[in-house]
Every structure is written in structure tokens, then in C-alpha cells.
Amino acid sequence: xxxxxxxxxxxxxxxxxxxxxxxxxxxxxxxxxxxxxxxxxxxxxxxxxxxxxxxxxxxxxxxxxxxxxxxxxxxxxxxxxxxxxxxxxxxxxxxxxxxxxxxxxxxxxxxxxxxxxxxxxxxxxxxxxxxxxxxxxxxxxxxxxxxxxxxxxxxxxxxxxxxxxxxxxxxxxxxxxxxxxxxxxxxxxxxxxxxxxxxxxxxxxxxxxxxxxxxxxxxxxx
Length: 222
Known about the structure:
Radius of gyration: 18 Å
Number of strands: 6
CATH topology: Glutaredoxin
Helix content: 55-70%
Number of helices: 9
Order of helices and strands: EHEEHHEHHHHHEEH
Largest sheet: 4 strands, mixed
CATH architecture: 3-Layer(aba) Sandwich
């Protein structure tokens, strides 16, 4: 049985991406247990704020600006925190800061080339750093250190961050997202043509994977 190929357009400062990818990964594991079919997941770059300044700002201030005020921001943060508790993620916006995510996406694109699981491990490390620890994941030293934590070569990470390696690849991913009309993430694309938009429940993902796998199998048999 061939693997289901899954691309997820996401951003590393998007809490719903963290939730959605985590739930999808768990659903994919269940799908494999139930059906025996592997699911191969790859992340692709999307930026909520392509013009974000190099110097990070408090995440709460960002939400206040984007949502129209403190009350709206706190309501959104409460919603995120509640969804996180259900998923087992303890969001903490006390010290969270937001800056440009372009270099983080360069790191994730590089990580995918280094071996199975590396991109996933780095993505989760960056999400934890941002949402649980208040780390600035636009900072090069932070990015290199987090790459090292998941077993990637720190010297190579420093080299990439000091130059433009993988920048063209990230720009291509961003252009693809724009061409596809993606304006909300996570956007999950399966087998190149089936799309699931937004963060869904784990059960919904399990059902979707099963239905899509069955449809692909039916199409192949025609």
C-alpha cells in the first residue's frame, strides 16, 4: 500500500498550526495502525506577516493590533489556551514574542533534507520555544541552538543563517501558497488534490484520512 503524501502549509508562530499539525500527526499514526498505510507528512512555508520586523514584539501586542483591541486579543488567547489543554499543549503567552519567521522556515526546509523526522522534530521544538518558553525564534542564535537540540549540525545551521541558503526554496513555497489562494492555515493538501483547511479535531482528521485513502484506492481501481 503506497503512502499518503501530505503537505501542510503552516507558520511557526501560528497556534492553530501547532494544534492542527499535532492532531494530524496523531491521526496519521492511528490511520497507519488501523489500515497499515503509512502517511508521509511534510511542512511548507506560510507567513502570516511577511513584513514582520526583524526585532520581535510581544505576541499580545501583535494580537491586539490584528484583532482590534485588548479584549479581542485576550478572548482569542483564551480560546487558544483552551484548545491547547484539550490537545495537551500548555500555551503560555506571558513572554511570547513575534518576529519574522522567514529564517525559521529556512531552517525547516533544510531540516527536511537531513533525514526522516528531522523537520518534524525541529518544527515542534520551534513551536515549544515560541509558545511555551517565550523564546525569540526570529533570532539566529535561538534557531541554531534549537536545531542543535534536535540533533542537527549547529555549525551548518549557523552557516545557513549567515547566508541565503534555502531562501529561494522558501520563497517558492510562499509563492505556491499564494498561487493556491491560501489565506488561512494550517492548509493540508493530500495526494496533491485533497485539501483540509484549518485546525480540526483528531477524530475528524482520522475520518478524513480514511475517506481520502478509500477514494484514492477506488480511483486507482477504475
